[in-house]
C-alpha cells in the first residue's frame, strides 16, 4: 500500500532520490560492509570471481543444502560443487565469520557490443562486519586465491609436455606440446628400500612447503635429483610417482631436439611453476666426445664452453648443434633457472660414470638417488602389489630362500614384475617360477664372479653372453655398442655420491 501510494504521489525523480537517501542512511547505521565480485569486470573476466567459486566449492559439498550446482571442467576428472543462484553460505577465516551470496540477475538486452556478453549477470557479494574489514580483507582474499589455485591443480589432470616438434611453435606460440598425464605409478607401488623412499618423499614435501626457507636463504626455489641405475630399476616410474605425489606437471625435455642454448632458455621460460623438468638418459642424449678430445690434447679438466653434440645429430666437429655444457648448467642452476619458481629438475642415467663431473658436483643436483637391483624389501612390495602377499604371509621357506638369493640374482624390478604378471592368476606358480629364476641368476652371477676373479677380465664367454643380453634389453644398445665392454660401476661408488 505504501509503495503504491509513493508511486502515485511522488514523481520518479523524487522517488529515486528518496531511495538513495534511505540507502545511505541504512549503510551509515549498518554494522556490515559489502563487496561485489562480478563475473565480468567491464569487458574482462574477473579472476577473483572464478577463484571464489572454486574456493567455496571446497566447503559447500559438506553443507546440507537443497540445491547445489555441479560442474566438471574439460580435462578434469573431478566434479566441483557450486552455490546455486541467489544462495548464500557462511565461511570463517581467522575466527571471523563472513557471508557469501551468489547473485544472478538477467542482463538487459544489448543493442551493440564488441564482445557478446552472457545473458546472466553473475557475481558474489561478500558481507563482512565493518569492524573486521581491515583485519581480514587482504589476507582473506590472498588465501582464497591460493586455495583456489590448489584446488584447480588437484582437479586438473597432470599434463605431460614434450618439445619433440624440434623448435617449431604451436598455434599459440608455445614450444611445448602437452597430453594428459595419467601414469599410475605412485610411491606406494614403487619397489625400493622403504627408508630411502621415505627420505625422498619427505624431501619432496619439504621442498613444496618451504617457499619461505628458500627466500630466507637466498636460494632459487628449485631442486635437482639425479636418478641413476641399470635399465628397468624404476627411474621413469619414480618421476611419475614424484609428479603424482606433488601434483606437478612434467616437462620431458628431449635434448637432441634442442639446437642452441637460446632455444633451451626459451623452453625453460615457457615452463610453468610447480613442474618437474626431466632430461632422461642424459648420457645418451648428449655425447661428450668433444670433451674427451679436448681434454686429452689440452690437458684441461673441464671446458664449460665445450660443445655437446646431440647424439641424433652425431656432429663431432661441434658445428651442427650448439648446446654447450655451460648452457645446460645455466639451464639448471644459472640465473635463468629461477625465472618461475617451484621447479624440480630430474636427470636420469644408466651410466653415472659417463657424466661430466661438472654436472655431478655438489649443489648442482641436490640428491643423487641410486635405483638398485631388487632387494628383499623391494621384492616384498612387488609381491604385495602383484600377488597380494602381505608381510605376515612372508615367513615360510620360499620367502626365506628368496631373501637369500634376491641380491645375488641382480634382477631388476622390471624383470620381477614381468615374471609375476605372467602368472598372476596362479600365485603358487608365480612364486615357484620367480624363485627358480632368482636361483639360476644367482648361480650364473656366482660363476661369473669366480671366472672374473680367475681371469681378472670381463672377456670370458659367460660375461660376454651376459653383456649381450643386457645390451639387448637396453634401448640404447646401438648407440652405446662400443661402451658395453666397460665395467659396470661399483655399488659402493654410487652410494658414496649420495648426499
Ligand atoms: N622400482 C620399481 N617399482 C615398481 N615397478 C618397477 C620398478 N622398476 C621397474 N618397474 C616396472 O618396470 C617397468 C619399467 O620401469 P622404468 O621404465 O621405470 O625403468 P627405468 O629405470 O626408467 O628404465 P630405463 O633406464 O630403461 O629408462 C615399469 O613400467 C614398472 O612396471
Ligand atoms: Mg626410463
UniProtKB/TrEMBL annotation:
Its cofactor is Mg(2+). The keyword Hydrolase applies. Keywords: ATP-binding, Hydrolase, Magnesium, Nucleotide-binding, Signal. InterPro entries: AAA+_ATPase (IPR003593), AAA_N_dom (IPR025753), At3g28540-like_C (IPR058017), ATPase_AAA_core (IPR003959), Mitochondrial_chaperone_BCS1 (IPR050747), P-loop_NTPase (IPR027417). Residues 221-375 form the AAA+ ATPase domain. PANTHER family: BCS1 AAA-TYPE ATPASE. This is AAA+ ATPase domain-containing protein. It comes from Eutrema salsugineum.
